[in-house]
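SAMPLE LOG
Freezer: B-3
Tube label: C17
Construct: single chain, 465 aa
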Amino acid sequence: MTIKIYNTLTRKKETFVPLEDGKVKMYVCGPTVYNYIHIGNARPAIVFDTVRRYLEYRDYNVHYVSNFTDVDDKIINAAKELQTDALSVANRFVDAFFEDVLALGCKKADDHPRVTENIDVIIEFVEALIEKGYAYESGGDVYYRTRKFDGYGKLSHQSINDLKVGARIQPGELKEDSLDFALWKAAKEGEISWDSPWGKGRPGWHIECSAMAREYLGDTIDIHAGGQDLTFPHHENEIAQSEAMTGKTFARYWMHNGYINIDNEKMSKSLGNFVLVNDIIKQVDPQVLRFFMLSVHYRNPINYSEHLVSDAGAGLERLKTSYQNLKHRLETSADLADDGKEWTDKINELHQEFLDKMDDDFNTADGISVLFELARQANYYLMEKNTSVAVIQAFMKEFEELFPVLGLALEAEELLDDEIEQLIEQRNQARRDRNFQLADEIRDKLKDMNIILEDTAQGTRWKRG
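STRUCTURE (predicted):
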């Protein structure tokens, strides 16, 4: 088994060799929780969940960590707009994040550290950087001395002298150098803050991931991942902080997914094409959205449009239909003496081809192409007059084994009675609150799951359709 990963640090594919045999330490930058996640946030969630699933499928024990930035200027501003406090905003959208990504088939991380729960760890990290001469206090802020770190720019492949040209010192900043960046920010009046050796304040953005990755995974990790937009300055600054602190390599493999465009235009609020996942999955099956995301190699840009998502839905349905046809034929197939070795050999060849594609930098696009060939061969086999139980079971086993690797389900999961009752109670509460839009959404959700509701004077009754 040889898995190759394109390493942003070296700009080439490298054979993956973990620090510890059979174990993978993986850190993925999570969202700043001030709003529902947008389609751009969904891509790394889906992509790196799939990377994790494949590594686990290949018998690696993966320790997967993904953080929440739960204190930030955006969160503070959202709290002001909503007339509440920053932690309430963060808590609300942490819950919303889980609701959205779990619907997309992503598993929860082994650890989801939050900045506000790791303030002491972050302060200790900053103190160590000051002691080593890599950071300094100035007016209650603490800054990192960027030029002191010899390797600065190695991830984004930029010269520090080129960076100097565009660097500026903002009003109120007391930096030694315009390239220096904040590790700790002095509190402004009315802002959420914590006590520190430099006065009340809160962490800068970049320091949180360095501190929490070290706290949960150790000085050196195997894979650090995130969106392409994080390469610079966020991940570049993480390397500078972490390697100055420990004197060791921070992450051995850096993975970054490509950008998302909306109808061939860059997604932005100003263009009015800012698409929230919470809105999309009310109209589109979340599994279809996941399948669409995986239909393009993770490093390539992807163009989101209703037409392309609809095409992805049709493709996913073809695969599922092929599986259902096999399942139905199994009931009438004979246990033939001829075990169909020619067909099982073909299935085994396709299985190995899927592994080869995924081993080559997690190429889900080509992996999905293999699934379509599997479906084509299965459909061709079902046209034969006599079909064998053994061959049909071999086809079905392949679907059942490879779909979960991509985080996809062959059949809709059946709701348990308790889950149905819980949704009905949520709908009843929404109606009591006169939130009829939410009540209708819950009813429609249950309807899509083949649950029929009947509102009576004695309460809401339900049955499976």
